Amino acid sequence: MSQKEIPYKIYLEENETPTAWYNLRADMKNKPAPLLNPATHEPMSKEDLAPVFCEELVNQELDNTTRLIHIPKEIRDFYKMYRPSPLVRAYCLEEKLQTPAKIYYKFEGNNTSGSHKLNSAIAQAYYAKKQGLKGVTTETGAGQWGTALSMACSYFGLDCKVFMVKVSYEQKPFRREVMRTYGASVTPSPSNETNVGRKILEEFPGTGGSLGCAISEAVEVAVSTPGYRYVLGSVLNQVLLHQSVIGLETKAALDKYGIKPDMIIGCAGGGSNLGGLIAPFMGEKLRGEADYRIIAVEPASCPSFTRGTYAYDFCDTGMVCPLAKMYTLGSSFMPAPNHAGGLRYHGMSSTLSQLYDDGLMEAVSVKQTDVFAAAEQFARVEGILPAPESSHAIKVAIDEALRCKENGEEKTIVFGLTGTGYFDLVAYQKFHDGQMDDYIPSDEEIAESLKKLPQF
Amino acid sequence: MSQKEIPYKIYLEENETPTAWYNLRADMKNKPAPLLNPATHEPMSKEDLAPVFCEELVNQELDNTTRLIHIPKEIRDFYKMYRPSPLVRAYCLEEKLQTPAKIYYKFEGNNTSGSHKLNSAIAQAYYAKKQGLKGVTTETGAGQWGTALSMACSYFGLDCKVFMVKVSYEQKPFRREVMRTYGASVTPSPSNETNVGRKILEEFPGTGGSLGCAISEAVEVAVSTPGYRYVLGSVLNQVLLHQSVIGLETKAALDKYGIKPDMIIGCAGGGSNLGGLIAPFMGEKLRGEADYRIIAVEPASCPSFTRGTYAYDFCDTGMVCPLAKMYTLGSSFMPAPNHAGGLRYHGMSSTLSQLYDDGLMEAVSVKQTDVFAAAEQFARVEGILPAPESSHAIKVAIDEALRCKENGEEKTIVFGLTGTGYFDLVAYQKFHDGQMDDYIPSDEEIAESLKKLPQF
Q1: In A2-35, which positions are buried (b, 16+ CB within 10 angstroms) versus exposed (e)?
Q2: Does B111 touch chain A (CB under 8 A)?
Q3: What is the pLDDT of residue A318?
Q4: Helix locations, A109-158, DSSP H
Q5: Which site among A134, B70, B306, B351 is 20 to 30 Å from B76 CA-CA?
Q6: pLDDT score at A298
Q7: For residue A111, which residues of chain B lie inside 8 Å, CB to CB?
Q8: Is residue A397's pLDDT more than 50?
Q9: How far apart, in Å, are the Cα atoms of B94 and each of A299, A430, B348, B373, B422?
């Protein structure tokens, strides 16, 4: 098919959109390692998980065999408000780079939460509502997940209680206001509302909080309040399952025009976007039906795939959650204050970790200033102001397109543009003012953190 | 056609999008009054306007007869990056209101500038480039227009010099950073770079600036720098012409499903969005082919249609621009500090003013807290966080839908959702905290300002 017959944006019709999520684990020969009970080191059972998570979500978390899981009509109706998201042919970027490569990106930022997080938030809120719950609790750092969850809860009339890391609460009042607009209660963490919060405040009266502490508070409120459960926006199997809608739509749009990508690129923090984007492509690869290069991009400041180790670790710095086997820098690893936002997690989804360990995907790490330079280049030609997270994928897509130019190869590149950068302009400002640094952790720093992995 | 056959979002295919703008003036029996030279009170000629504006844009400004003006390929290519914009059926809002009315909105916020302003910015940048100019100057208050223009100039490789009202420059650093990301130079106004700026700074050293002063600086730089012209984002005929793409797409999408609206609602500041949205519908009305209720919504704090007078007035508070005949509160009218953003202009497009004076459209004014309550209600069910400007139209669309419910009428309502509210969260915060007031100017205040209209 000639290049010009492919529109700038490929939209699917409503009847071409997925009716089931794809559970990648069903096609994995080596299944992801199970979550372990931190006390007994036994795999977490349904009963272990039920006090914390909704029943149906626990089922999805533990289900390694069902390939397709029906998307309930209520969730599909919500998806219709902002999905299908466009698959965009980056004609302008290609021209700017003068590359023979064909570049496509799946844009997940066209909804008020500004990112792909909404795909799982609405599913989790739906199952909470279906179970007859009154509300859910969660934590948020920068606020992307909290925003998505507050929108989802507002739609289903659920209470939404967000513990927001105090320093973010104070420095990012706009994210907080969006959550309030959607009726969420937003509490700076640590707070006086929980035992763990009070304890931390007593010990460190001036602390700005941490994600680990916010998780602990959110879990405490969920398990101690009748009718509440805790929800999480990344890392978990259930989240990757819901996010498979990204990849399924991408594949349907490509198939519609007979396009077969050579490589699929996504940024990786906890793995929610990458796991969703690559799902159906990785499925074909696992079943031996097709081959693709699949590339995870992580920040050089927090390189869990490229410099971490594959081991059981705590999911949170507070060490209250189950143990997960994953590529990790150690739960005590503190990434330098930087602007990789949602990519500053010390570990990585168990599913993606297993696939990476099995040699089914690659990983690269990129420096922050290079990421922002790519973001700016992209914004100027493609119009969209990208989130810093998404810009990690942009950076590597541009690198690969330039390599195609060098080698005269007409490869087809697909990358995930997970969100918009409207709430990240402090970072853009630092970049413009030349005040952004490229901190890269030393080998010693990582080794020190890995020494504290749980031993058993 | 049954309700459920109509999708949530009606997208046009690329080949269904407009190839020409529609010049509403061609169908007006009573043409809009011409701009007058402030010194001679004679109509501004092409020669009078050429030192300030690009040639082709002057032609468009003065052309009251050509009905369809071809959209150049270069502009259509850019439109393809973010257009066609979706026409959304507000199923969720309808259900929430339990109204028999059918509500549609044309959503113009799905681009990085966050509003419809980009439709005219790209056209103006194109004609500047085509004329071989080096760059353009403009002013911006809140920053919506400056953002759109910086994106457009970046695309065509034009210099973009934005004078940003100093108080906004300091209070809205994020808008400034978006403009810088697109390579624009942003100068707080008043500045030391112009005669008028230096004069004002000498007289009022601590001033936070004003739109009138920023216009004067932008015009001074444009006319005194070789290869530069001045561009403007609203009020002018040329801007309404470019914005007709909104209405043309809306009408094409409705026609595709055989839908005939009963009323069309848009917010009105200078008139750029409203004039564009209603253009083809008003055209049918002018030609006697169809009838529609057309409703302009303005803030009660700045009610030029509903409480102003129809007279020649200065377009800017600095009184350097041509005189325009329009509904006006007087160029010395100072709207109370509020959050209507782009709707705080003292006057109104000459074209819309003539149509209103001829009884072809209605106008209503709404209070600020009512507007934000409607915005929040809309956000919670439809997902999108609306701009305060757009929320004026939401408020009246909801009012009309509730009237339908009362009367058991199945009317079809179309309104313009011009943009998103990501940069307006300070206003949302005030609303949430109960700190937003509803200042309405007194009759005496308006009369006092109208006394200063130019007399001749």
Answers
A1: eeeebbbbbbbeeeebbeebbbbbbbbeeebbbb
A2: yes
A3: 65
A4: 118-130, 144-156
A5: B351
A6: 96
A7: 383-384
A8: yes
A9: 44, 44, 32, 16, 25
User: How long a stretch of residues is chain A?
Assistant: 456
The string over A191-229, giving b where at least 16 C-beta atoms fall within 10 Å of a residue's C-beta and e elsewhere, is beebebbeebbeeeeeebbbbbbbbbbbbbbbeeeeebb
In angstroms, the Cα distances linking B25 to B53, B283, B324 are 20, 9, 16
Chain B, window 324-363: residues with a beta carbon less than 8 angstroms from a chain A beta carbon = none
Q: Which residues of B touch A434 (CB under 8 A)?
A: none
Rounded to whole angstroms, how far apart are CA atoms B291 and B294?
9
Cα of B315 vs its chain's centroid, Å: 15
Total-model pTM: 0.90
From the list B111, B174, B432, the residue facing A177 with the nearest CB is B432
- Put simply, whether B268 touches A (Cβ < 8 Å) is no
The confidence band for A81, taking pLDDT boundaries of 50, 70 and 90, is confident
Which is it for strands B102-107 and B135-140: parallel, antiparallel or unpaired? unpaired
In this structure, which amino acid lies at residue A121?
Answer: A
Closest CB to B182 among A92, A180, A379: A379
Cα separation, B288 vs A409, in Å, equals: 59
Asked if residue B339 has pLDDT above 70, the reply is no
- Report the alpha-carbon distance of residue B446 to residue B456 in Å, rounded: 20
Residue A321 tokens, joined: 């959650």
Q: What is the ipTM of this complex?
A: 0.84
- B-facing residues of A in 134-153 (CB < 8 A) are 151
Question: Average of pLDDT values for A208-236?
Answer: 90
A182 and chain B: CB distance < 8 Å anywhere? yes
- pLDDT mean over B186-209: 90
Higher-pLDDT residue of B339 and B370 is B370
What mean pLDDT is reported for chain B? 93
Do B81 and A429 make contact, defined as CB atoms within 8 angstroms? Answer: no
Interface contacts (A, B; CB < 8 Å)? 103
Residue B373 at interface with chain A, using a CB cutoff of 8 Å: no
Residues from chain B that touch A183, judged by Cβ atoms under 8 A, are: 380
Looking at residue B209, its pLDDT comes to: 82
Please report which confidence band the pLDDT of residue B428 belongs to, taking 50, 70 and 90 as the band edges: very high
Residue A230: the pLDDT is: 96
**Closest residue of B to A14, CA-based?**
B7
Amino acid symbol at A291: D
- Do A112 and B178 lie within an 8 Å CB cutoff? no
Token reading at B407: 């009367």
User: What is residue A3's predicted lDDT score, i.e. its pLDDT?
Assistant: 47
**Cβ–Cβ below 8 Å for B112 and A173:** no
Q: Is A157 on the interface with B (CB under 8 A)?
A: no
Could you tell me if B174 lies within 8 Å of chain A, comparing CB atoms?
yes
